[in-house]
TrEMBL record, chain A:
It is found in: Membrane. Coiled coil: none annotated. Keywords: Membrane, Transmembrane, Transmembrane helix. InterPro entries: ABC/ECF_trnsptr_transmembrane. Its main location: membrane. Residues 193-220 are annotated as: Disordered. This is Biotin transport system permease protein. GO terms for cellular component: plasma membrane. It comes from the Bacteria. The keyword Transmembrane helix applies. The chain crosses the membrane at residues 39-56, 68-91. CDD domains: EcfT. The keyword tRNA processing does not apply.
Automatic annotation (TrEMBL), chain B:
InterPro entries: AAA+_ATPase, ABC_transporter-like_ATP-bd, ABC_transporter-like_CS, ABC_transpr_CbiO/EcfA_su, ECF_ABC_transporter_ATP-bd, P-loop_NTPase. GO terms for cellular component: ATP-binding cassette (ABC) transporter complex. PROSITE patterns: ABC_TRANSPORTER_1, ABC_TRANSPORTER_2. Gene3D superfamilies: P-loop containing nucleotide triphosphate hydrolases (3.40.50.300). GO terms for molecular function: ATP binding; ATP hydrolysis activity; ATPase-coupled transmembrane transporter activity. Transmembrane segments: none annotated. Belongs to the ABC transporter superfamily. Residues 2-225 form the ABC transporter domain. Keywords: ATP-binding, Nucleotide-binding, Transport. The lineage of its organism: Bacteria, Bacillati, Actinomycetota, Actinomycetes, Pseudonocardiales. This is Biotin transport system ATP-binding protein. Signal peptide: none annotated.
Length: 220, 225
């Protein structure tokens, strides 16, 4: 559900990222306090209208939201057990409105615009030592690397399965090693691309190297 | 010109490069050698990603030890694994990223990005998430992102190892067409055949230096004997 920008020229796309994010936060808060099913149902309808306005194809909207559904089912099922049907329906609707709206923001806003909005919002905090560009970079890189780390996790799992290990808590160790290695390479790449101070601490590289040589997966 | 004088490098108490004196003036320089012979360490010295334990590396007269930032602006670096090099979520954003950090005026960034997208056949992937590109496309993007900042030199550390034959050919063609001076570390002897010069490393030392044919012969002799 990350970084699947869907390009089009619509009023929803044209709305500044900062405005969209503020609306998302406001609606998120409001939905939390909304206690009636008709209000929540109407909100869901409104979000659906916004999807139409943004000309997001149903196929794209579905692809974006599908990964969340199992969690939604789980949440609703838990609520049914502990609080009954009515509360469960309300909670389900709340989550649905929120996820749908958040996805709409993702689909209609470029990451660079989100990053710029975050940077702008943090600028007043500069005197307190906050570095907005750095926070913006972290936001962008998080979006970029979540799928990469997921890929690494799949690889580690596949490698273990290939060796006949079906379920293993040792799964985390090779994944951690790979992630550290990724982080190491990434730090270097950022240097090479002109970010950061350059002189990287030799100690940090050496420690990663130490982990590296004990990588149980080896290089595949 | 990139110039190394009396360069040695040590990790902990192990010397991985010793006594390297080279002046790289040719437009296409290849670096070959066995695993662990010090090629990547050498490559990283060229743009100041690491500074030598002893001796000096200079790029256009700038010492990498003192002028690292400026050196890295002149010397672009393409890593073996494009996944570490691509730091932004989408193709166009990643191209813009390097430009922003090279102090290119904001107004000229979109134009440069568009041109790079067109040059590398990535135009239709403009807003595509980087992680959904194929390995070859990722490597092309990584190279494009370096080229777009217009460095005078480009160092490649095994740019084709992770690629299939077709993508490898594309990358080879791109490298062959570059106007910049390039230094390419590679195990792929075909890639280097028409280079101007090839340097062979063995256990941290330069053991051969000449035309690719001479260097490959020396490398093969090393392996067999
Ligand atoms: N950051 C590091 N810390 C400690 N040792 C290192 C580090 N980087 C490389 N080495 C060691 O230095 C030696 C040379 O490594 P280098 O990566 O330069 O070799 P290479 O010729 O590029 O090998 P390959 O063909 O496998 O890429 C190796 O023995 C390696 O283990
Ligand atoms: Mg190497």
């Amino acid at each position: 559900m990350l970084s699947l920008y869907h390009d089009a020229r619509t009023p929803v796309h044209a709305l500044p990222a900062g405005v969209k994010l503020s609306i998302l936060v406001a609606v998120g808060t409001a939905v939390f306090f909304a206690g009636s099913a008709p209000v929540l149902g109407a909100s869901l309808g409104a979000v659906a209208l916004l999807y139409a306005l943004a000309r997001v194809p149903a196929r794209v909207a579905w692809r974006q939201s599908a990964p969340v559904l199992p969690f939604l089912v789980l949440i609703v099922a838990t609520q049914v057990l502990i609080a009954g049907w009515v509360v469960a329906a309300l909670v389900g609707l709340r989550v649905l409105v929120l996820v749908a709206l958040a996805n709409l923001v993702t689909l209609t806003t470029r990451t660079s615009a989100v990053v710029a909005a975050v940077e702008a919002a943090l600028r007043p905090l500069r005197p307190l030592g906050v570095r907005p560009e750095r926070v913006g970079l972290v936001v962008a890189m998080t979006i970029r690397f979540i799928p990469v780390i997921k890929e690494q996790a799949d690889l580690v799992r596949a490698a273990q399965r290939a060796r006949g290990v079906e379920r293993s808590t040792a799964f985390l160790v090779p994944l951690l090693v790979r992630t550290l290695r990724l982080a190491d390479g990434l730090g270097e790449a950022l240097d090479a691309r002109g970010v950061g101070s350059g002189e990287r601490s030799r100690r940090s590289r050496a420690s990663v190297r130490a982990v590296r040589t004990s990588d149980p997966q080896g290089d595949q | 010109m990139i110039e190394l004088s009396g360069v040695g490098h040590r990790f902990g108490d192990r010397w991985v490069l010793r006594g390297v004196d080279l002046a790289l003036t040719e437009r296409r320089v290849a670096v070959i050698g066995a695993n662990g012979s010090g090629k990547s360490t050498f490559a990283r010295l060229l743009n100041g990603l690491i500074v030598p334990t002893e001796g000096r590396v200079r790029v256009d007269g700038l010492d990498t030890r003192k002028r690292g930032r400026e050196v890295r602006r002149r010397v672009g670096f393409v890593f073996q694994d494009p996944d570490v090099q691509i730091v932004m979520p989408t193709v166009a954003e990643d191209l813009a990223f390097g430009l922003k950090h090279h102090d290119v005026p904001k107004v000229s960034i979109p134009g440069l990005v568009d041109r790079a997208l067109a040059d590398f056949g990535l135009a239709e992937y403009r807003d595509h998430p980087a992680h959904l590109l194929s390995g070859g496309q990722k490597q092309l993007l990584a190279i494009a992102a370096v080229l777009v900042t217009d460095p005078a030199y480009i160092v490649f550390d095994e740019p084709t190892t992770l690629l299939d034959l077709r993508n490898k050919r594309r990358v080879v063609a791109v490298v062959a067409g570059l106007a910049q001076q390039v230094v390419v570390v590679s195990h792929d002897l075909d890639l280097l055949a028409d280079f101007d010069r090839a340097v062979v490393f063995d256990e941290g030392r330069v053991v051969a230096d000449g035309t690719p044919a001479e260097a490959v012969a020396a490398y093969l002799a090393l392996l067999s004997g």
